[in-house]
Design goal:
This protein is of the alpha/beta class. The protein has nine helices and nine strands. It has a seven-stranded mixed beta sheet, sandwiched between helices. A two-stranded parallel sheet has the order 6-9.
Length: 252
């Protein structure tokens, strides 16, 4: 049996109708060097039953974490990352969205880049670059994303094109830095990860340890868990992140 070298965290909240059971089961059956770690984030539908069904295909390669109370994507991903880090010696730990808007082939390319370059600690997908990419995005969503992107660039001060892509992979060594403490927000934790890593490595060295990789395919799937009311709060939440990390320095 081949040793597992990569764990993929999949946060799930009321995903019973959207989870592609066949896609997940086929992937894990064909890739004995991968683990899937599903985190049921307090779902009120039968998501947990569906996850157990997926696990039945390869029980040793599928982990299901059941959070009783819904805490948001940030908490779900953090719970998965810390569990894998503490319970296994898997060298690469990443996450993707449950709707597979980023497919497994693109994720495998992220893992390849991370393992091929010894200096890298994090590789993250980008939906905004790559001449040959096949990206489908809603125009209004794209406009709003560009506004948010400008605010994030101001906060980070780093040449990062797409912080919010839901496909990222980390070396296990950097997991305590990226996920060791609770996140301030439920949805913008990606920004907090970059801030934490910038603080860890310093502004002059951080980009030596990160790599932004264009995705070949990304498709926005309807029925996003981020509603309109949540979206209008994003500028305020970003300001809160900036203030907490840079002015009050509440987060260590």
């Amino acid at each position: 049996m081949r040793a597992i070298n990569t764990a993929i965290i999949v946060p799930c909240y009321n995903e019973a109708e959207r989870l592609d059971i066949t896609a997940f089961q086929q992937f894990i059956t064909k890739h004995p060097d991968y683990m899937l770690c599903f985190v049921n984030d307090g779902s009120t539908d039968n998501t947990l039953d569906v996850l157990e069904q997926i696990k039945s295909a390869e029980p040793t390669q599928v982990k299901v974490i059941d959070l009783v109370v819904n805490g948001g994507k940030a908490q779900a991903v953090r719970a998965g990352a810390m569990a894998i880090h503490s319970e296994t010696q898997i060298p690469n730990i990443g996450f993707i969205d449950a709707d597979l808007s980023t497919d497994f082939e693109d994720f495998k390319r992220l893992v390849f880049s991370l393992t091929f370059h010894d200096n890298l600690e994090m590789v993250y997908g980008s939906r905004n670059s790559g001449q040959e990419s096949n990206i489908e995005r809603n125009p209004l969503r794209k406009l709003f994303s560009n506004v948010v992107k400008a605010i994030i660039y101001f906060i980070l001060g780093l040449p990062i094109d797409d912080t919010q892509c839901g496909a990222k992979v980390f070396s296990r060594e950097i997991i305590p830095t990226a996920f060791g403490t609770q996140f301030l927000t439920k949805w913008l934790f990606d920004v907090e990860i970059f801030i934490r890593m910038k603080r860890h490595y310093g502004k002059n060295r951080i980009m030596d340890h990160l790599f932004e990789q264009p995705l070949q395919r990304w498709v926005h799937v309807d029925d996003s868990k981020l509603g309109v009311k949540d979206a209008v709060k994003i500028p305020y939440m970003l300001f809160s992140i900036w203030f907490s990390y840079n002015v009050s320095r509440q987060v260590i």
